[in-house]
């Protein structure tokens, strides 16, 4: 019996997506070919819709789960905007740009938010799902969007009547690309440009509204509003994560463009700074420009956006952009995993924001009960002085099974407190903290890449626990990371560029991924035997 929000099989088409990083034909017996009814009949699907695989066979018997068979609505087939290769990721539909409005994009990682921004900015030419090498020309693309707002938008992009710029998602790469002081690059970009006159038959963007065009912000004005005046004369390589994020936002804001796109604006920023940045982005809005904001912090998206597009799907497989919604409605759709207007459920569960100390008993009444906690660990009062900075941590305790959040502004000592509790930094006065088995995720993702010795000296050091030596990193994954780091330095010059989507750049290395997949497979076999 079909459940509410479930699409019937007569309205579905199935598409096969292959993850080449998981596929390892040397370590299997090609179960996918033996179990596939299409191959058994001697037919090659050739990347077309797969109609012979049932819902129960979505993994196609692949031991590494490298194949995904996804079911999509037939109505979406004509709305394919871009596809990365024959068996690669597919993006369906695009957000609708609205002048004078801030458009927010929310969705899971690797579902296509950054790809959608690149297409709208003109930096990525959509292929309309043609993966056979026949690229689409812009005339076909404009025909695809004929009669919609996107047709006029892309026409202006092509004729260079409007210019777009994207704040990159991964700000850790900025110091490697820009060498110099903050003021130098902000001043270089803070130039008024001469707009190309519209061709005959196209309405100039200046005539969309009678509102006078907003003056271009100066470097000092942007620095004051983002509170980065004190770092203007500092080299970019010396900036912290939060300072680097605000510099990246400032680098976009000082430019004379018509379309501002901000991809991930809250990374490295505390709550206070996020609100200031969100307010700053709202102030960039005029009746003549376009603004797009992508972020995982729903409160930031709610604060900055006028309308919201939800991007749902499966990471690295496919993504669908919903029509624009009111901000509150869009956030509710994302949280509930259900689109009422289309009677479509894209997630089997709702995102729960219940207290971490409670969970559902699973009975019909839906009663709540406390989570059982384990032993309590007490730590003494701790003092630590690092240069002019001093932190005082009062004595406290935590229980096994608890999730504890450290809340505070940047630079107040949260990371230092974690280092003290983990035993990675010695406290003043020789005060000792309980020695526990610690798994520590660092704040800055680029630390290990820039200084691999940190991984060996800090994250693999043995920690005493009940008289036993335990390492914070367990092989084979730890050994794999070291081997990969050595080989990556040798092959860095031989690596060729590859088109990668948004969050896909955060993927593990192939060796790490193989180790994780093997571990998952062994654990799954143990569970099945039990």
Describe the structure.
- The chain is an alpha/beta fold.
- The chain has three domains: 9-74, no CATH class; 78-193 and 215-345, Rossmann fold; 376-489 and 506-529, no CATH class.
- The protein is 28% helix and 17% strand.
- It has 17 helices and 21 strands.
- The protein has helices spanning 31-35, 37-40, 113-120, 138-144, 149-158, 174-177, 182-189, 219-226, 241-253, 271-283, 298-304, 327-336, 414-422, 447-450, 453-459, 477-490, 510-529; strands spanning 12-18, 67-73, 80-83, 90-92, 102-107, 164-167, 259-263, 290-294, 307-314, 318-321, 325-326, 338-339, 344-345, 358-360, 368-370, 376-379, 382-386, 389-393, 396-399, 462-465, 468-471.
- The strands form seven sheets. Strands 3, 4, 5, 6, 7, 8, 9, 10 and 11 form a nine-stranded mixed β-sheet that branches. It has a two-stranded antiparallel sheet with strand order 1-2.
- 23% of the residues are buried.
- Residues 1-10, 51-59, 198-211, 360-366 and 450-500 have low confidence and may be disordered.
- Pfam families: ABC_tran, Fer4_RLI.
- Residues 485-494 have a biased composition (Low complexity).
- GO terms for molecular function: ATP binding; ATP hydrolysis activity.
- Residues 498-530 have a biased composition (Basic and acidic residues).
- Keywords: ATP-binding, Nucleotide-binding.
């Amino acid at each position: 019996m079909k459940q509410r929000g479930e699409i019937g099989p007569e309205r579905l088409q199935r598409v096969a997506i292959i993850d080449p990083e998981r596929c390892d034909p040397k370590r299997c017996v090609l179960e996918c070919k033996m179990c596939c009814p299409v191959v058994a009949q001697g037919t090659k699907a050739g990347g077309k819709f797969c109609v012979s695989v049932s819902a129960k066979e979505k993994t196609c018997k692949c031991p590494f789960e490298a194949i995904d068979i996804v079911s999509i609505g037939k109505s979406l087939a004509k709305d394919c905007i871009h596809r990365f290769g024959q068996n690669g990721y597919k993006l369906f539909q695009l957000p609708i740009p609205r002048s004078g409005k801030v458009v927010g994009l929310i969705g899971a990682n690797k579902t296509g938010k950054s790809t959608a921004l690149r297409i709208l900015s003109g930096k990525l030419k959509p292929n309309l799902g043609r993966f056979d090498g026949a690229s689409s020309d812009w005339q076909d693309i404009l025909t695809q969007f004929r009669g919609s707002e996107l047709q006029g938008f892309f026409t202006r992009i092509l004729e260079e009547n409007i210019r777009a710029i994207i704040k990159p998602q991964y700000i850790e790469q900025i110091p490697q690309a820009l060498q110099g002081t903050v003021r130098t690059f902000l001043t270089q970009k803070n130039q008024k440009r001469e707009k190309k006159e519209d061709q005959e038959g196209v309405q100039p963007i200046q005539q969309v509204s009678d509102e006078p065009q907003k003056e271009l912000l100066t470097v000092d004005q942007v620095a004051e509003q983002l509170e980065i005046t004190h770092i203007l004369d500092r080299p970019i390589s010396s900036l912290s994560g939060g300072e680097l994020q605000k510099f990246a936002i400032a680098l976009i804001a000082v430019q004379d463009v018509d379309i501002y796109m901000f991809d991930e604006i809250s990374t490295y920023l505390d709550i206070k700074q996020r609100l200031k940045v969100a307010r700053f982005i709202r102030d960039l809005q005029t009746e003549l420009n376009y603004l797009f904001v992508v972020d995982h912090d729903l409160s930031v998206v709610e604060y900055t956006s006028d309308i919201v597009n939800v991007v749902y799907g499966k990471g690295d497989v496919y993504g669908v952009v919903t029509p624009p919604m009111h901000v509150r409605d869009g956030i509710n759709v994302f949280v509930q995993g259900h689109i009422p207007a289309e009677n479509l459920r894209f997630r089997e569960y709702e995102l729960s924001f219940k207290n971490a100390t409670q969970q559902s008993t699973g009975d019909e009444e839906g009663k709540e009960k406390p989570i059982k906690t384990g032993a309590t660990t007490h730590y003494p009062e701790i003092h630590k002085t690092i240069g002019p900075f001093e932190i005082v941590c009062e004595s406290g305790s935590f229980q096994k099974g608890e999730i504890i959040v450290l809340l505070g502004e940047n630079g107040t000592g949260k990371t230092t407190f974690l280092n003290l509790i983990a035993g990675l930094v010695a406290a003043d006065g020789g005060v000792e903290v309980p020695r526990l088995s610690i798994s520590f995720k660092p704040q800055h993702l680029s630390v290990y890449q820039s200084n691999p010795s940190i991984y060996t000296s800090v994250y693999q050091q043995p920690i005493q626990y009940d008289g036993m030596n335990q390492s914070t990193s367990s092989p084979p994954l730890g050994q794999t990371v070291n081997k990969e780091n050595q080989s990556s330095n040798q092959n860095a010059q031989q690596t060729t560029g590859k088109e990668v989507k948004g969050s896909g750049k955060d993927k593990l290395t192939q060796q790490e991924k193989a180790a994780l997949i093997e571990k998952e497979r062994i654990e799954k076999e143990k569970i099945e035997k039990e």
